[in-house]
Amino acid sequence: MTGSATEHWEGRYNDGLTAAAHAARAVSLAGNLEIHSLEIESAEGQTLASWPHAEVRLIDRPGPHDPLRLARARHPDRLTITTPGALAAFERLCPALRKSAYKGPSWRAVAIGSAAALASFSFVFFVLLPLLARQAADWVSPAVEAQLGEETAKAVISIAIKLDDLKAKTAPDKGAQIKSRECHDIEGVAALKQLADPIEAQLHVPSPVHIRVVNSSILNAMALPGGQILVFRGLIDFVKTPNELAGVLAHEMAHIELHHPTEVVIERSASAFLIGLVFGDVFGGSAMAGMGQAMISSRYSRDAERAADARGIMLMEGAGLNPGSFAQFFKRLLEREGAYSDVASFLASHPATEERARLAEQAPTQGRTALDDKDWKALKAICK
Amino acid sequence: MSTDVAGSDPAAMGAASANVGFLDRAGLWKVVLGNFLLTIVTLGIYRFWAKTRIRRYFWSNITILGEPLEYTGTGRELFVGFLIVLAILAPLIVAYYVLQRILLGNPIAILVLLVAYFVLLFVLIHIAVFRARRYQLTRTVWRGIRAGQTGSSWGYVGLAVLYTVISVVTLGLASPWMEVGLERYKMNNTWFGNSQFRLKASGFKLFLRSLVVYALFFVPVIVAYAANFSWLIAAQRAGVGGDPGLPPPPEAFLLFFVAVFAGVPSVVWYTVAKFRYFANSTSLGEIRLKSAARTSSVLGYVIVFVLGLIGLVILLAIVVSVVAGVAAVSMSPLLSPDADPVSTAQAARAIYLVALPIVFLLYLPLYELLSYCWLQVSLVRHFATTLTIENIGELGRIAQAARQNPRFGEGLADALDVGVGVL
Q1: What whole-number distance in Å separates Cα of residue B363 and Cα of residue B36?
Q2: Which chain A positions have a beta carbon within 8 Å of B88's beta carbon?
Q3: What do you get for the CA distance between the two ends of chain B, in Å?
Q4: Are residues A371 and A245 in contact, defined by beta-carbon separation less than 8 angstroms?
Q5: How far, rounded to the nearest angstrom, does the alpha carbon of residue B47 sit from its chain's CA centroid?
Q6: Residue A75 and residue A16 in contact, taking contact as beta carbons nearer than 8 Å
Q7: Nearest to B293 by CA among B383, B364, B396, B222
Q8: Is the Cβ of B88 closer than 8 Å to some Cβ of chain A?
Q9: Residues B392, B13: Cα–Cα separation, whole Å
Q10: Considering Cα of B310, then B314, then B319, then B323, what sign does the dihedral take?
Q11: Residue B338 DSSP SS3
Q12: How far off is chain B from A40, nearest CA to CA, in Å?
């Protein structure tokens, strides 16, 4: 230390022009860090650089015995202070010492990047994917559709069973315990066939519709790719008349005719695949797993539901069945919706249920009842 | 010439060469654990900043003439790079996925699609590797001078395609030529300031080294396999866990011993020998590199790492048993033989649900600690400190070069999950 009040430290300086190291002394002077050469032969005392205090940055957190490595923000030159204990003084002099020495992209670039990614994702989810899925649903071969349907059915049934298990934990009656996954009571199956056949006869589909009853308390029915319909026991317990159930089946068959299930499955699995990418799951192992969950809580678009409702009522009329009780079904769903908002059912939780009940109400009310009492009882007992 | 103040600077004292140093700075475990927690909390988005912190640690540990390297990349750069690539790839990925769904039933179309997919993936991976290397080099600074990489990703991809075809045609015999060819392209396009690296290596010399792997690994395994052929077939027919019907002949164990005691060391030896050969064939102007990396050391680090992993699995097994035991005792009424089977199943499920996160939250950070704080640090330290830079005084003459540097980094490499470099 000289006698003067100015603080100074020794070390070495890299000018950012060459990789040479210059012996240097740094002096704090009037808000600046003046860096002077200590090189005896050439330029002793010459000022090498002058860094404003506000621009001095620490390169990395030094240990107690490490030299202090400093940079000037947005500049390539570097200063290494070897005088021990200099850190405290620099903390005092340089207000932004601990700020990052590296500029990196601005927050504007982050915002633009995020906007680009968001725009691309929105485009993919709302334009490209529905478009591709609709095309794909038309192009896909029956064999592939059947395979898709089988995969989806497996995923859906296993999730339905898990949901039942969860409910069984809280519900007092343990009757929900699942003995077998599917219901095969011979008389019940025959009655179901009797109910479905006249409706199916009206349908324009390449392969026959296959209806499976799943022994699960979920109040739901769903159409799957490849002409499969899953009906859950919860729905069979809920419906009061054969025509209510016929209405549901007609509605699901209409979805099949309109290719909706294939569309949704392709759309959902593709989005699960894409979401996996964002979180680092590149090869989409989670896509199939996510599909069952997506399907069970899945909703078709309002337009798709309207189309299926309208076509479903047409199918019932064509089969000579009275579609009027379909309206009753929706009304009762609405009441139940109020009471149990947690019911896992896309029919019950559909936001447009009220509108659909009204639509069904306008339907003609003539036509026969689908099943006689004996067959209806057999159908209600299909899972016993 | 300028005087260098670092007193021990061999260049200043007229010495021609010096070893690269490694500082072993404290606190890596804090970085690793912090990264783990933040990455989980942010559902993986923190990984860009995590990667940056780890790199910053390793770069700042490696010293040349006592001066550490500096990593000037930022997490934000990596994040923006990722967003951009995501924006470009998302529609392509979805289109591919839907196409694959449509064509599922048509074997020929699926085959064509699959081939197209793998060709595209191959090309993208090589582009990602080359671009990520450029990003990392341009973010590497020593004494204020930036490194860099010229050359084009497409040139690199073309070379990779060519060499891969040759390697496949020659059943892998030509792969040393591929390794040399790709390394040459990368090194000859690598710069420090205005000075360009040169790799003068021959594929044939690397091929001679690969013969050791053939002699100690491939050939003995094939011979041992042939010797035990009938037994292996019987074992395979019996399936996993099945009884092959006849006892394994004593030579059957030969396979195992050959693989463990000759195969693994020979592969490690080849990897280390390749590093030495490449280093010794590399020059930067008048500056040359010389590596004295040792197989025995590297093998030692790997063995300790594997033993550590085994210990970790044993530790986890003990912890899970204790937890499950405590849970089972506390739920004993539910687990007794005359209890309702449903509640027993639920109790077992609850134990499983408790044990699973424990395994997850214990194994992953401990694995990361073992990997970074032991294996990676040991390897980087060994390869760095056994590396001698000859004619090191010339380094000080190298000047900054004006090069166009990429603004964002590595998005493609992240999207494809390509591990780039050691870290």
Answers
A1: 11
A2: 120
A3: 38
A4: no
A5: 16
A6: yes
A7: B383
A8: yes
A9: 11
A10: positive
A11: coil
A12: 9
- Report how far Cα B246 is from the mean position of its chain's Cα atoms: 42
Q: Which long-range contacts (CB under 8 A, 24 or more apart) does B358-363 make?
A: B358/B319, B358/B320, B358/B323, B359/B316, B359/B320, B362/B316, B362/B319, B363/B312, B363/B316
Q: Any chain A CB within 8 A of the CB of B215?
A: no
Flag if B90 and A124 touch (Cβ within 8 Å): yes
How far is B15 from B17, CA to CA, in rounded Å? Answer: 6
Phi, psi of B376 (to 5 degrees): -65, -45
> Residue B140, class by beta-carbon neighbours within 10 Å (0-12 exposed, 13-18 middle, 19+ buried)?
buried
| A80–chain B Cβ distance below 8 A for any pair | yes
- Tell me, yes or no, if A140 comes closer than 8 A to chain B by beta carbon: yes
Q: Give the residue from B1, B3, B287 with the most A CB atoms within 10 Å of its CB, the best one to mutate.
A: B3
Tokens of B226: 């042939």
Beta-carbon separation of B98 and A133 below 8 A:
yes
Digit-coded pLDDT (tens) for A30-72: 888 889 988 766 667 788 999 999 999 999 888 778 899 999 9
Chain A residues in contact with B93 by the CB 8 A cut-off are: 273-274, 277
Find the helix or strand (DSSP H, E) in which B287 lies. strand B287-291
Q: Which residue in A69, A80, A120 is closest to B87 by CB distance? A: A120
Give the HSE-up count for residue A287: Cα atoms under 13 Å, Cβ half-sphere: 23
Residue B92 touches partner A, C-beta closer than 8 Å: no
Angle between helices B47-61 and B75-103 in degrees, nearest 10: 130
- Three-state secondary structure string covering chain A: CCCCCCCEEEEEEECCCECCCEEEEEEEECCEEEEEECCCCCCCCCEEEEEEHHHEEECCCCCCCCCEEEEECCCCCEEEECCCCCHHHHHHHCCCCCCCCCCCCCHHHHHHHHHHHHHHHHHHHHHHHHHHHHHHHHHCCHHHHHHHHHHHHHHHHHHHHHHHHHHHHHCCCHHHCCCCCECCCHHHHHHHHHHHHHHHHCCCCCCCCEEEEECCCCCCEEEECCCEEEEEHHHHHHCCCHHHHHHHHHHHHHHHHCCHHHHHHHHHHHHHHHHHHHCCCCCCHHHHHHHHHHHHCCCCCHHHHHHHHHHHHHHHHHCCECCHHHHHHHHHHHHHHHHCCCCCCCCCCCCCHHHHHHHHHCCCCCCECCCCHHHHHHHHCCCC
Contact B141, B69 (CB under 8 A): yes
**CB of A9 within 8 A of CB of A69?**
no
Amino acid at A307: A
Residue B17 Rama label (left phi>0; alpha psi -120 to 50; beta): beta
Contact criterion met (CB < 8 Å) for B3 and A23: yes
Residue B400's closest CA among B59, B30, B83, B141? B141
Contact of B76 with chain A, judged by CB distance below 8 Å, is answered with: yes
The residue type found at A100 is S
Question: Token digits for A67?
Answer: 């030299």
| Pair of tokens at residue B167 | 């390697």
Assigned token pair, A334: 């609405």
Q: Is B199 helix (H, G, I), strand (E, B) or coil?
A: strand
- Could you read off the pLDDT of A300-350 as tens digits, one per residue? 777 787 888 888 888 888 888 877 777 777 777 767 655 443 333 434 345
Q: What confidence tens digit (pLDDT) does each residue in B331-376 have?
A: 766 666 666 666 666 667 777 777 777 777 888 899 999 999 999 9
CA nearest neighbour of B42 among A279, A58, A253: A279
Helix, strand or coil for residue B291? strand
pTM of the model: 0.75
Who among B142, B342, B400 is closest to A177 (CB)?
B342
- In chain B, residues with a C-beta closer than 8 Å to the C-beta of A128 are 91, 94-95
> In which band, very low, low, confident or very high, does the pLDDT at A375 lie, cut at 50, 70 and 90?
confident
What's the ipTM?
A: 0.79
